Amino acid sequence: MAHSMTAFSRQSHEAAWGSLHLELRSVNQRYLDLHFRLPESLRALEPIWRETLRKRLARGKVECTLQFAPATVGAGFGVNRERLMELAFALQQIRGEIPDAPMPDALALLDHPGIGDAQEPDLDDIKAAAETLFSQALDELIEGRAREGKRLAELIQARLDSTQEQVAQVRALLPGILERQHILLLERLEAVRAELDPQRLEAELVLMAQKADVDEELDRLETHVAEVARQLIQKGPIGRRLDFLMQELNREANTLSSKSVVAETTRCAVELKVLIEQMREQIQNIE
Questions:
Q1: Is 153 among the domain residues?
Q2: pLDDT tens digits for 158-196?
Q3: How many domains does the chain have?
Q4: Which of 149, 228, 241, 265 could staple 260 via S-S, CB 3.0–4.6 A?
Q5: Are 58 and 154 in the same domain?
Q6: In terms of Cα–Cα distance, which of 246, 278, 240, 204 is closest to 3?
Q7: In this predicted structure, which of 68-77, 261-270, 272-281 has the lowest mean pLDDT?
Q8: Closest by Cα among 238, 33, 245, 78 to 159
Q9: What span, in angstroms and rounded, lies between the C-alpha atoms of 10 and 22?
Q10: In angstroms, what CA-CA distances link 73 with 13, 117, 121, 217?
Q11: 203, 145, 209, 202: which is closest to 177 by C-alpha?
C-alpha cells in the first residue's frame, strides 16, 4: 500500500505540573531525515524517539517539536515552615533591639530565600506523558501518510489506465503503420531501383521495417505498467521502485518516439511522456 511522505500531527496534554504540546510533521525527502526540537530537561527522549521513527518510517524529512510549559506559581507552591520560624524568631530579636524597625509583610516573607518552597514537578511523570503524546502523534502521522498515499495511488492508477490505452491504440495501428511504411519505401525506391543491387535493396527494406516495428517496445511498456500497478498494492516502502519503473517507462516512450514514422505514433508517444511525467511527479511524494 502506498504511503505518502507528507503528513502532520499535533497532540497536547494538560496536568497539574503544566502542559505539553507535541508536533510531528513530515515532507518529501529522498532518505529519512530526522530533526528534533525538545526542551533541555527532556532531551534524553530524543535517541529513543529517533530509533522509533527509524523503525516505523523509511523516507521523508520528519520534524519533531515538543514544548513544555510549567504550571504557574501557586499550584504546588508551599512554605518552608522551619525556615519561616527561624525568620520569625530573628524578626522578634530585631524588634526587641529596634522597636521602630518596619516589619515585612507576608508577600515579602515569601520572597525571602528559603521561605517559599515551590514544589518541582516529577520529571518522570512529564517524560511518561511526553512519550504517550509521541506515540499518539506518530500513529496519527502514519495514518495521515496512508490516507494521502491511497489518494496518490488512485491518481497514478488512473494515469496507468490512460497509458495502457495509448499502448493499445499504437498496437491496433501497428499493422497499418507497417504496411504504409512498406508502401512508402517502395515508392521512394522505385525511381532508383535500377541503380541498386536487388539483394541490397531487400536487405535495406527488411532493416527499415525492423526499425519501424515497435512491437517489443509496446510489450515492455505493458510489462512496466503491470509492475507499477502491482507495486502500488505492495506492503512497505515502494517509492524508489516506482521511481525506477518511471525511468524504464520513459525510456520505452522515447524509443517509441524515435521509431515513429507516422503522426499517430508520434502523438501517442508524446501523450505517453506526459502521462509518465505526471506519474513521476506524484511518485516523488511516495515513501
A1: yes
A2: 999 999 999 999 888 877 777 777 776 677 667 666 566
A3: 3
A4: 265
A5: no
A6: 240
A7: 68-77
A8: 245
A9: 6
A10: 19, 10, 12, 75
A11: 209
Q: Are residues 183 and 193 in the same domain?
A: yes
Cell of 269: 508517444
155, containing H or E segment: helix 123-190
CATH code at 221? 1.20.140
State how far the Cα of 79 lies from the Cα of 77, in Å rounded to an integer.
7
Same structural domain for residues 235 and 262?
yes
> For residues 163 and 225, what is the distance between their CA atoms, to the nearest angstrom?
8
Does one domain contain both 86 and 62?
Answer: no
Q: How would residue 208 be classed by pLDDT, with cut points 50, 70 and 90?
A: low
Cell of 238: 515502494
Check whether residue 21 and residue 141 sit in a common domain: yes
How many residues can be counted in the chain?
Answer: 287
- Cell 532493416 sits at which residue? 207
pLDDT at 74: 47
Residue 2 lies in a domain: no
Instruction: Determine the distance from the C-alpha atom of residue 272 to the mean position of all C-alpha atoms in its chain, rounded to a whole number.
Output: 26
Percent of the chain past pLDDT 90, that is, above it, reads 57
Determine the pLDDT at residue 81: 77
